[in-house]
User: Which sequence fits this backbone?
C-alpha cells in the first residue's frame, strides 16, 4: 500500500518548529513520557495530511463522506522513529498558523491504524490519500484512506468501543454503524430546551 498526500503549505514545517521547540522545553502538564524525553534535534515530522469533519446532522440524515468539511493540516511528530504527538496547523486567510499539539493517543493510534492497513491483503499494491475524519459529537476519530474508487476507514482512539472497533471498514459499513448513534444524539440535542447540550 502506498500513501499520497495533498499539496501542503510550503512553510508548514517552519511554522510548526518554534511551537514544537517551545513545547519540548516546557514539558508541561499532560505531556506524554516520550514527548517529555524527546530532544529537538531528534524530532522529525511526517508528510502533512488533512483533517475532515462530518456533522451530526449529516450523519443522522444518512449523508456520507462527500459532505465532510475540510479541517486542519495534521503532522505526526516522531522522535527516534516513535510517534510522540500530532501537531496541527490551521489555514486562516490563506496563511497557516499553529493550531494545537496533541500528546495523547491520536499519533500512536494513527501509526497503529496504518500498520493494520499495511497488512490488509486487499489493500496491497493500492494507493490511497491519507486523511483523518472527525465526528466530534460522537467522539469518533477515524483514519481515512481515500482513493477515487474506494474509501477505507479505521476508527481509532478516542472512538468509543461500543460504536466501532479498530479495524478496516468500508464507508457504508462504518456510517451504518454510526448513524443510529447520530440519530439518537441529534434527537437529544433537538429535545434539549436548556441550551446546555453541546456547550
Assistant:
Amino acid at each position: 500500500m502506498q500513501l499520497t498526500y495533498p499539496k501542503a503549505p510550503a512553510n508548514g514545517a517552519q511554522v510548526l518548529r518554534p511551537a514544537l521547540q517551545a513545547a519540548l522545553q516546557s514539558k508541561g502538564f499532560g505531556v506524554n513520557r516520550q514527548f517529555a524525553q524527546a530532544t529537538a534535534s531528534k524530532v522529525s515530522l511526517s508528510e502533512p495530511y488533512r483533517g475532515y469533519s462530518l456533522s451530526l446532522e449529516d450523519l443522522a440524515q444518512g449523508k456520507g463522506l462527500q459532505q465532510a468539511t475540510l479541517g486542519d493540516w495534521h503532522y505526526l511528530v516522531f522522535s527516534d522513529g516513535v510517534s510522540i504527538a500530532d501537531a496541527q496547523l490551521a489555514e486562516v486567510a490563506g496563511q497557516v498558523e499553529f493550531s494545537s499539539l496533541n500528546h495523547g493517543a491520536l499519533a500512536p493510534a494513527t501509526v497503529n491504524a496504518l500498520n493494520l492497513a499495511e497488512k490488509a491483503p486487499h489493500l496491497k499494491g493500492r494507493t490511497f490519500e491519507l486523511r483523518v475524519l472527525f465526528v466530534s459529537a460522537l467522539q469518533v476519530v477515524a483514519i481515512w484512506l481515500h482513493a477515487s474508487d474506494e474509501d477505507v476507514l479505521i476508527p481509532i482512539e478516542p472512538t468509543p468501543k461500543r460504536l466501532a472497533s479498530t479495524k478496516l471498514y468500508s464507508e457504508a459499513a462504518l456510517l451504518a454503524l454510526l448513524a443510529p448513534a447520530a440519530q439518537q444524539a441529534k434527537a437529544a440535542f433537538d429535545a434539549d430546551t436548556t441550551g446546555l447540550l453541546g456547550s
Notes: Residues 2-191 form a domain with the prostaphopain b, domain 1 fold (CATH 3.10.500).
